[in-house]
Amino acid sequence: MIHVFKVDDVYGVVDTNSGLVHIVDEIIYDLLVDEGFKSIDKIQDIYNKYGQVTVDEAISEIKYLIENKQLYTEEIVIKNKIKPVVKAMCLNMAHDCNLKCEYCFASQGNFKGQRSLMSYEVGQKAFDYLVKNSGSRVNLEVDFFGGEPLMNFDVIKKLVDYARSLEKDNNKRFRFTITTNGVLLDDEIIKYINENMDNVVLSIDGRKSVNDKMRKTLNDKGSYDVIVNNFKKLVANRKEKDYFARGTYTAYNLDFSEDVKHMRELGFEHISVEPVVTKPEEKYALTEEHVNTLKEEYEKLAKMYVNDYKDKDKKFSFFHFNIELDGGPCIYKRSVGCGAGTEYIAVTPEGDFYPCHQFVGETEFIIGNVNDGITNELIVDKFRNVSVNDKPTCKECWAKYYCSGGCHANAYNFNNDFKVPYNVGCELEKKRIECSIMIKAKLQDEV
Amino acid sequence: MIHIKTLNKTKLTENISVKGCGECQTSCQSACKTSCTVGNQKCENK
């Protein structure tokens, strides 16, 4: 299986099963589109366009790649050898929030339940479970999430200390991330985060008007003016550690590249702006009618990425344009997908386990708790059996080893079936991959 | 090659006997939290 595409003036070819990406000229592009080089009629047109000698030379290069298993590579059937063990946790430290964002999948912080904070004891038990059930895995990932996790900051600090106390004896290394809306950030908390969190995700949607339309304070005012200076201060003291200024775009800001640009102007270099995940009936949901506009927007953003790359004051990274062509995940990882419910679980303040943060509050998806461990294998099995080649649509898709089958929550929300991916998400993901390759091609000497 | 330039140095299908350690980051644990993207994770088994 191959995929042939053009973004800006770059012609690309993805050979799905080998993972090889070829940048080609227009002649090869014309020969490979719709497998033109195999059709006598089409090839005659191409001869007429470029001349026979040149075209024959190009065809010989195509044949060379095919013979050397670099094009139209056959699928290899692999038996997955990653034994899933729980190694990553999303700790919902607070089912409460000091903002009420309109698109919040956590129902303005309470996840459709009572407002509550995770106790130190529940967090301890969660970490004990994680250490005990992570087998030989060394790296354990914990995201302090919410609602707004900083509403429970004292417990976070105690839990970080507790996790560190478990590392040496158990040969584990905890990596912490915190996702915050920024309202409660002060000098003390910023210092703590910068010293203790391996990554920090700062929630802001971009331009003030865009951010404030969705991210509102409890008094129905915009949150932009409250959070921007806090985020700037945190980032100024972050040094080389990871962070993302992270926004959500919706049907209200299809021109989200302007929000990326705005965030860069605020001084944030590492940016992620991602499509909203919601039910299709919401006014701000992204649907099929938006796809072409959004594809153009990604292309516009990719061109901006390239143009700004050599200017240190403008250069930025965009999470979804990161692509690892050589140092990326192996084919096993690419086959099994995100790991929700198998290697990644979300924990509520009450200690319930869910397959991932997106399902919290949908009580039929509770898979266990901190006291009894995983008890609902029926649900876990549903997540275990959705590798990319288990999904008919994905199996035939050229992009399957980049997205690994997409987001289960999206599939469930839109199609009520884990094996049927959310098509809008697929279309956008494919466009992002093409844009990422275009960027690699243009900056190949620099990136 | 005059008409084709390959960007990667390795194939997905190479060295698979020593791959599959499972140490790499869980994808939703990075920035995203909403949209699965695995191809941008780094391999921890170099």
Characterise the protein shown here.
The complex is a heterodimer of chains A (447) and B (46). Chain A contains 16 helices and 15 strands. Chain A is globular. In chain A, the strands form two sheets. In chain A, strands 4, 5, 6, 7, 8, 9, 10, 11, 12, 13, 14 and 15 form a twelve-stranded mixed beta sheet that branches. Chain A has 447 residues and is of the alpha/beta class. Chain A has helices at residues 26-32, 40-50, 52-67, 120-133, 153-170, 187-196, 208-214, 224-236, 257-265, 291-308, 331-336, 377-384, 392-395, 400-403, 408-415, 423-442, and strands at 2-7, 10-15, 20-24, 88-95, 116-117, 139-146, 173-180, 199-203, 242-249, 270-275, 317-318, 344-347, 352-354, 368-369, 373-374. The two termini of chain A are 27 Å apart. With 46 residues, chain B is low in regular secondary structure. Helix content of chain B is 0%, strand content 7%. The relative contact order of chain B is 0.22. Classes of the chains: A alpha/beta (447), B little secondary structure (46). Chains A and B meet through strand 3, helix 3, strand 6, strand 7 and strand 9 of A and strand 1 of B. Strand 3 (20-24) of chain A pairs antiparallel with strand 1 (4-6) of chain B.
